[in-house]
UniProtKB/TrEMBL annotation:
The gene is ruvA. Residues 153-198 are annotated as: Domain III. This is Holliday junction branch migration complex subunit RuvA. Transmembrane segments: none annotated. It comes from Branchiibius hedensis. Residues 72-91, 107-126 form the Helix-hairpin-helix DNA-binding motif class domain. Belongs to the RuvA family. The RuvA-RuvB-RuvC complex processes Holliday junction (HJ) DNA during genetic recombination and DNA repair, while the RuvA-RuvB complex plays an important role in the rescue of blocked DNA replication forks via replication fork reversal (RFR). RuvA specifically binds to HJ cruciform DNA, conferring on it an open structure. The RuvB hexamer acts as an ATP-dependent pump, pulling dsDNA into and through the RuvAB complex. HJ branch migration allows RuvC to scan DNA until it finds its consensus sequence, where it cleaves and resolves the cruciform DNA. GO terms for molecular function: ATP binding; four-way junction DNA binding; four-way junction helicase activity. The keyword rRNA-binding does not apply. InterPro entries: DNA_helicase_Holl-junc_RuvA_I, Hlx-hairpin-Hlx_DNA-bd_motif, NA-bd_OB-fold, RuvA, RuvA_2-like, RuvA_C, RuvA_C_sf. Signal peptide: none annotated. Coiled coil: none annotated.
């Protein structure tokens, strides 16, 4: 998995960038907002998601890891592929998209081209309890708990990569580090995995 890339922007399109990394130009699909905020010749760093198909390898890029994680989460819903997931983030910023899903706002979701009423209802049904509240909302669940240290963040990211949501992972890491002080990253990860039951 290519989780991020950094390099010089060689070209900018309406919904993609070409970023030169080590002499290789990588085509990265982005939202129009990300593309329009980028200029050729400047340095860029993106969180990325690599979508592997039988006949293609397609790279999608995002300003933040939280945006990428939401892109990957919405694809767990049947019928939502990477293009539709990217369209969702093009129409709605991450926090409004989380708010629409968590608040069962079918009307907001159907503003995305390709999502009808039934599709929006399915997205709400499958993701309402997984998406978390938007940052800044009452009871918000940020993608990574802000009170975590860098080492704890690494453990949370590893747990999210293994299939837990950010809240479950953050709660487990905080509980483990509250019980035992001075654990390194590997020890914290093992203890959090035991707490989560794996």
């Amino acid at each position: 998995m290519i989780a991020s890339l950094a390099g010089t922007v060689a070209a900018v399109g309406l919904d993609h960038l070409v970023i030169e990394v080590g002499g290789v130009g990588l085509l990265v699909h982005t939202t129009p907002a990300t593309a329009s905020a980028t200029r050729p010749g400047t340095a860029s760093r993106l969180a990325t998601s690599l979508v592997v198909r039988e006949d293609s390898l397609t790279l999608f890029g995002f300003d933040t890891a939280a945006e990428r994680d939401l892109f990957e989460l919405v694809q767990t819903v049947s019928g939502v592929g990477p293009r539709l997931a990217l369209a969702m983030l093009a129409v709605h910023a991450p926090d409004p998209l989380r708010a629409a899903i968590a608040g069962s706002d079918v009307a907001a979701l159907t503003k995305v081209p390709g999502i009808g009423k039934k599709g929006a209802e399915r997205i709400v049904l499958e993701l309402k309890d997984k998406v978390g509240a938007p940052a800044g909302a009452p009871g918000a669940v940020p993608s990574i708990t802000p009170s975590l240290s860098t080492d704890q963040d690494q453990v949370v990211e590893a747990l999210v990569g293994l299939g837990w949501n950010a809240k479950q992972a953050g709660d487990a890491v905080l509980a483990v580090t509250a019980e035992v002080d001075g654990l390194d990253v590997a020890e914290t990860l093992r203890a959090a995995l035991r707490r989560l039951g794996r």
